[in-house]
Description:
The chain is mainly alpha-helical and 413 residues long. 57% of the residues lie in helices and 3% in strands. The protein has 14 helices and three strands. A three-stranded antiparallel beta sheet has the order 1-2-3.
Amino acid sequence: MATLVLTSCSVVERPASLRLRDEIARIRAAGEPLTFEELRAGQAAREGADAASDYRAAAALLVDFDNGPIFDLLKAYRASIKSCPRVPPSTEVRERARLILAQARPALELIDRAARKEACHYAFNLETGEFPPFWRFRSAGYLLSLRTLEFAVAGAGDGAAASLISKLRMLRVFETEPVLIAYMIRLAEWDSAGADLRAVLGPGTPSETSLGDLDEALKLAEAPDLLKRTIEGERVWEMNQLAAILAPDWPDGELKSASVKRAPFWRRPRLLRETSDYLAATAAVIHAASEPWPHVFDAMYAACPSPKTYPVALAWSLPMERAGQALAATRAGRVAIALERYRRRQGKLPASLTDLASPLPTDPFSGHDLLYRRAEDSFVVASVGPARTTDVHAVDEKGRPQGISVCFARPGR
């Protein structure tokens, strides 16, 4: 009887295994990554010194930093730059910020040095199944924002721009092995950089050279193929886990693992079928993620018409929308730089964006120009946002930046 049961299970497993083998063959034929090594190899190559070692050394120096007090100081600084004219933080807040920044100087100097290097191949080695201490890079992000805002409050425009550029360049840490958790952390850091933009542009505006460097850093932060590569990376992660669980039943020798106990025979047919379904659904999502903004939204919804049938759609709907908001803030910053350059040449703000007479980045949610509104001492550039609204606004309903509000008035005190 036991032999009969095992034989019948083997017969059930075989079609599922063949279907999974076909899906793996399709991925390989499409030239898409099946392993983390292939995923790393697919990163856009850049010549020059590699910044990864500097970032690793900086992260090691931040192991004892407490994010709580730093975040509280950040809230105080960001509240101070929301008004126009700005009201600087209290002397006590600024003294505490300077003390923390002095303690973090060795790590920040390493991050600044890394920012000046062209290449960054920061491998997490996720095939080991262990995630790195991402929180250290959250600490680095908080500290960079705090330094940027302190420079801005002090009127050091070039220092504020250089600090923000270092933060934007640090986003590269999460691009070598992109998976969902790393992508979400990168999005949080990208959001934070967008929130810092309004402090950098305004009183004490950076020099023309710094504006050019900041514009380039904002452009590079878009990383246009990263959403696609992240979905591919998440698929590689899942395939590594499933190959370990299915062990000898996994129909691809490259990903087989002998270190994990094989799943019970009654689970294997279902796991094989679910894996095939997952790979098929993910293929459609990866293709959709290759579309430019804003077409990626319609393509993604068309690829996953039913969340119940394609649960992978639910996993990527929020990151995709968040990415659009962060991208909108980045592009709004680039338009704000173009507006500032116009103001320096003409002595006034343009009546509309068409007066700039140069190609501008578009709103990732509409594909058209970003929204622009000016006042005597300020201007706003913003996206219509995912709700397709018509009002100019710099943040969404949850306070995430998807635009920039720039104030030219001097601080009130």
